[in-house]
Design brief:
3-stranded antiparallel β-sheet; single chain
Length: 344
């Protein structure tokens, strides 16, 4: 131990007395990092444009509505300032969406699914006629190809939303922190809800921090989303997430759901280094096929899948773990690649 301490002191002395190469510098409001230079105004422009892109995707590709009601159904109104939340409630499955004091314009659990059966253009998109059942009767079946296309749009929206939350919710969180946010209270003793509404603003409360392995104590950090970004998150949790679950049940036999917005790849290894970067990259390449390959059968709202059968377990036959969310697992590599792509 004495030898180790001496070597550490020797190395620290060299580091403190030797001039290092410059990596980060400021020139006015322009930051210089290695060979890259950008201004604060450019970061602000990225956030604004990314928000517009995400909002357009939410309206046209996920909710099939428009702002003024033209070419589709009108977007249900949302007043964040009127939403109340019991931040101390730890009942399983609790969130501000289940609070009886909040009166939403439509029932988010059935609004989008009901439109699929009522509106011809959506019915033609998600449903197809076919033969099912032992009696040989003709029944409506999900168009699995269109469902997978919808899942890809949801995946892209969640990646854009992640980049927006990272850029705009106060001090940027580490990747392993932001993916610990749960949108509802999980089972007792399995973590804490991390999405709240406080005086008209959506709050992220991360449950992991880099010093946890040393202190073994939680240090919740509240990050307030701008109203424009918080609105997108609430619309997604309110209207899109229930519809995605119905589609997952109908086409993939999924009956269990993750409480995380961005499901972590390895809950127990966040602060322990995890696997190698090569393993993480290979896992990320497999995310899409795993998350889109949980196919199976099932019935939901009259939508009969092609295969049928019992719901699959979360752990596959060969020991591989499949994500409960349709967009797959999130790890540090995926976080980095998402931010790199969305800010490119």
């Amino acid at each position: 131990m004495n030898h180790i301490m001496q070597q550490r002191t020797y190395g620290r002395r060299i580091r403190e007395s030797t001039k290092a190469s410059t990596r980060v510098a400021w020139a006015g409001d322009t930051i210089l990092i290695d060979k890259v230079a950008f201004s604060i105004e450019e970061i602000r422009a990225v956030s604004f444009e990314l928000r517009e892109t995400a909002r357009k995707r939410l309206l046209s590709d996920l909710l099939f509505v428009s702002e003024n009601g033209e070419d589709g159904k009108e977007l249900p109104p949302l007043q964040l300032e009127k939403i109340v939340d019991d931040m101390g409630c730890t009942d399983e499955g609790w969130s501000f969406l289940t609070d009886s004091r909040n009166k939403f314009a439509v029932d988010g659990e059935e609004w989008l699914a009901g439109r699929v059966f009522r509106e011809a253009r959506l019915r033609e998109r998600f449903m197809r006629r076919g033969w099912a059942g032992e009696e040989g009767k003709e029944r409506a079946r999900c168009n699995e190809r269109m469902v997978e296309g919808y899942f890809r749009q949801v995946r892209q929206f969640k990646e854009e939303l992640f980049a927006l939350a990272h850029l705009s919710a106060g001090a940027p969180a580490r990747g392993t922190e932001l993916i610990t946010v749960m949108h509802r209270s999980p089972q007792q003793g399995r973590g804490e809800r991390g999405v709240f509404v406080d005086d008209g603003m959506v709050v992220f409360a991360t449950s992991y921090h880099k010093n946890y392995q040393h202190s073994k104590t939680n240090k919740p950090i509240q990050r307030y989303l701008p109203e424009e970004v918080g609105e997108l998150l609430v619309y997604y949790l309110w209207l899109v997430e229930p519809f995605v679950r119905i589609l997952q049940t109908a086409t993939r036999d999924r009956v269990e759901w993750s409480d995380y917005i961005w499901e972590p790849k390895n809950e127990e290894g966040w602060g322990e280094g995890g696997g190698s970067s090569e393993d993480e990259e290979s896992d990320e390449e497999a995310e899409g096929s795993q998350s889109e390959g949980d196919g199976g059968g099932g019935v939901e709202g009259g939508c009969v899948s092609a295969a049928g059968g019992r719901a699959k377990q979360a752990i596959g036959g060969k020991g591989e773990v499949h994500a409960s969310n349709m967009d797959g697992f999130w790890g540090t590599d995926r976080v980095r690649n998402t931010l790199k792509r969305e800010t490119g």
